[in-house]
Design brief:
Length: 276
């Protein structure tokens, strides 16, 4: 269960400015019903070129509705230049904070506002630029780079929270990790590790990789893994949560956990599950 602030609950249960502005000056639509979240934002300017009326229509969760409602309240009376400076972090702060797993809802509001302003200015909507990294949610490398840069994201889980990228099949996790390292001026984890690891270095890297790269992905589906022991090149673990009872636990063990450790630590590693 997500921990929502009272202000989030209020904007969800009693959303402001729901609907569509009649004869709007600006229209912005983002998201997709297929991905679970969609938002349409419309606004009208007064004679002083300030936002006189703004409304939204959102299909999504409590955070998506609350973020959209909050955004419309925030930008009323602003000029477009002032409104364009609103960030997703500003929206989250206005609400007293959002669960990290729901920060993408505030990003969606920011993006809809940018599109509505571009529409008013007659700027032709560009097709998605960059290379699609996350096929599940259609997120590009440029979108991920922007989220990482603006919010100082450091993990794949952070990127998923802000963009949804990586929240589906997980095949794009390596690419997301490379983008994070690129933005922060670091080399990929494979390039960072020494050509030859000492036993202590190997053990430490195994522990770090399980904590940083493997556990977050398993926890998204209610699973977990416990590192029990390391014996030479054999990594002994215990699957927990849904992973422990899943019929595909052997696939998780070998094709994900073992494959990930071989990729990021050492190719000779073997993962075994401890007997119950």
């Amino acid at each position: 269960m997500w921990e929502y602030t009272e202000k989030v609950k209020d904007h969800f249960l009693h959303p402001r400015n729901v609907g569509e502005v009649e004869d709007p000056d600006g229209v912005g639509e983002v998201g997709s019903l297929a991905c679970g979240d969609a938002l349409k934002l419309t606004f009208k300017l007064d004679e002083h070129k300030r936002i006189e009326d703004v409304k939204f229509q959102t299909f999504g969760c409590a955070s998506a509705i609350a973020s959209s409602s909050a955004l419309t309240e925030m930008i009323k009376g602003m000029t477009l230049e002032e409104a364009k400076k609103i960030t997703n972090e500003d929206i989250a702060r206005y609400l007293g904070g959002l669960p990290q797993e729901k920060m993408h809802c505030s990003v969606m509001g920011r993006d809809a506002l940018e599109k509505a302003i571009a529409h008013y200015r007659g700027e032709t909507e560009k097709k998605a630029e960059g290379e699609i990294v996350c096929e599940c949610f259609g997120v590009t490398d440029l979108e991920i780079e922007r989220a990482v840069r603006e919010n100082n994201l450091t993990t794949v889980e952070d990127v998923t929270n802000y963009t949804k990228a990586g929240g589906g099949c997980g095949k794009c996790h390596d690419k997301i990790r490379e983008i994070i390292d690129k933005v922060h001026g670091r080399q990929h984890a494979m390039q960072r590790k020494p050509a030859r690891l000492t036993n202590i270095q190997k053990m430490k890297l195994i522990e770090e990789t399980i904590e940083r790269e493997i556990k977050p992905s398993l926890k998204k589906d209610g699973g977990d893994v416990e590192l029990v022991d390391i014996d030479g090149n054999t990594v002994i673990v215990k699957l927990r949560g849904t992973c422990a009872t899943c019929v595909a636990s052997e696939v998780t063990l070998k094709h994900y956990l073992e494959a990930k450790l071989r990729e990021l630590v050492a190719p000779e590693l073997v993962v075994e599950e401890v007997e119950a």
